[in-house]
Amino acid sequence: MSLLTRRRLLRRAALSATAAGAARTGLAGATAAGIAASTVALGGCDSPPERTTDPEPDRGLRFPDGFAWGAATSAYQIEGATKEDGRGESVWDTFSHTPGRIRNGDTGDVAADHYHRYAQDLDLMRDLGLRSYRFSISWPRIQADGSGRPNQRGLDFYRRLVDGLHERDIAPMATLFHWDLPQALQDAGGWENRDTAERFAEYADVVFRALGDRVPVWLTVNEPKTVVQNGYIWGHHAPGIRDEDAAYLVAHHLQLAHGLAVQALRASSLTGRIGPALNLHPCYPADDSAESAAATRLHDGYENRLYLDSIFKGAYPQDVLDDLGPDSRMVRGVRDGDLKIISSPVDLLAVQYYTPLYVTGARDTVRKWPTSEAEWQQIYPEGMYDILTRVTRDYGRVPITITENGLPCPDVPGPDGTVDDAGRVAFLRDHFAAAHRAVGDGVPLESYHVWSLLDNFEWAEGYEQRWGLVYVDYASQRRVLKRSAHWYRDVIRRNGL
Ligand code: FCB
Questions:
Q1: Active-site residue flag, 375
Q2: Which residues line ligand 1 (CB under 6 A)?
Q3: Do the bridges between strand 470-473 and strand 478-481 make them parallel or antiparallel, or are there none, so unpaired?
């Protein structure tokens, strides 16, 4: 069976293993797991958020001094204003405007209107007590066609955002690429074209020069694996391609782009730190057969080591290269010196954890735990502990930041206007506890960013899945702090659970 067919089957297996009904049941179970009753007051831009009247009992789980609690977003998912101030088109504009691609025909044209409401959103962050905010910079706002002279109005927007964060004592953490590739570069071959990595390094350099004095932490490429799998294997993310051979060449060029951006920062006089943002999936055998163990090992290669070994050890994993075969476009596309660029020393690793994967001897994935509203997400907090300790064990004591972890919930305002997302509170509490245990066992974890600050455009799912701590009423753009936001504020105050 070709790799392509095999992977399609894996995808189908993952899809068929989920059901919305089961997801809801899973959440209800988690909710019942003992959350203290609390009254949640309406918050948002107009009224300052009230505290919970009945915070959770103190579990005595404190994080290290200086631990930074934060929240994350990305440009295309929240900004809107896609045609303003000289912004060019991205692959996500094209993709979301293609009929049939996005649930309900949604687009990011308006999203959470953050481009216009960023000052109110900054106030929300301050009211929550965030110490760190992870956002992304829209490449087509900075270079409409992906190269050449920067667009000053685009840079000015991020300058205002970053200044506003500092004014509120919140540390900016900027991602350079969260999937919104300028369409003009896609037209020239996108990430299949090695040149795109060079263009990315130039763009990174422009951004470093403009904002580098105010941004202490940079993340290069968000989840290269998702671009590879969702964008180029399954085709349900931009650019909507289904070509496995192209996909792994894309994996290489995305990592080359990462390495070149690291080198660009080092070549500047800036002192900021930089690293990759990887979504890591702990992989477990579905049963105790030798076949499952072997299949799990290779699956781990594709999911994790394909990105970790290259960046931290300077070599792609041999089992994955063997599986791809010597004729694959990726294997043929790696040039002398590329791995040296890709493994340019980084200052930190950003880990994004959502789900474990269970692999059968036939290389299918199966579900062991309840899923969330996102069919691909099994709720398994232990996976957070496992992936953090594994990374530290296998790749050394590089400082780690969690840049995404969260849960979509069927959030609806109640009659009193409050949003009671008790399932999200339970989810976060269990994952924070797992992260705390990892810290106790020696993982150098320095910060944790919940995905997401705001409800937003969840890619192919449009606006149907709500991932925010803050509810967005898209019709009025009013923000309402959910119960989880109030709860999170207490966690931050306490620096733990
Ligand atoms: C991650 C993405 C992020 C968001 C969450 C739910 O894979 O990086 O933009 O969509 O999933």
A1: no
A2: 74, 77, 222-223, 226, 279, 404, 451, 458-459, 467
A3: antiparallel
Check residue 57 and give its pLDDT: 86
Distance CA 48, CA 41 (A): 10
283-285 β-sheet, strand order? 283-285, 357-359, 365-366
Q: Is residue 174 classed as helix, strand or coil in its secondary structure?
A: strand
Q: Which one of 303, 404, 458, 461 is the catalytic residue? A: 404
The more confident residue out of 6 and 41 is 6
User: What percentage of the chain exceeds 90 in pLDDT?
Assistant: 89
Give distance in angstroms: CA of 114 to centre of ligand 1: 17
Closest CA to 468 of 412, 410, 408, 422: 408
pLDDT at 450 over 60: yes
Instruction: Tell which residue, 365, 300, 355, 296, has the closest CA to residue 16.
Output: 365
pLDDT band at 55 (very low <50, low <70, confident <90, very high): low
Dist. CA 134–CA 116, nearest whole Å: 18
Give yes or no for residue 50 having a pLDDT over 70: no
Q: What is the per-residue burial (b if ≥16 Cβ within 10 Å, else e) of 400-430?
A: bbbbbbbbbbebeeeeeebbbbbbbbbbbbb
480 compared with 25, residue with greater pLDDT: 480
**HSE-up of 134 (CA within 13 Å, CB side)?**
29
Ligand 1 atom with least separation from CA of 277: 8
- Ligand 1 centroid – CA 458 distance (Å): 7
Q: How far apart are CA 108 and CA 93, in angstroms?
A: 7
* Separation between Cα atoms, residue 185 and residue 196, nearest integer Å: 7
Whole-number Å distance between alpha carbons of 399 and 390: 13
Report the alpha-carbon distance of residue 264 to residue 359 in Å, rounded.
Answer: 39
* Ligand 1 mean position, distance from CA 278 (Å): 11
Out of 409, 459, 466, give the residue to mutate to test ligand 1, the one with the largest number of ligand atoms within 8 Å of its CB: 459
Give the pLDDT band of residue 24 (cuts 50, 70, 90): very low
Atom of ligand 1 nearest to the CA of 459: 10
> Any alpha helices (H) in 129-168, and if so which ranges?
139-142, 152-167
Residues in the chain: 497
The phi-psi region of residue 193 (left if phi > 0; otherwise alpha if psi is between -120 and 50; otherwise beta) is beta
Q: What is the pLDDT of residue 7?
A: 44
- Listed in sequence order, the residues at least 6 apart from 83 whose beta carbon sits closer than 8 Å to its beta carbon are none
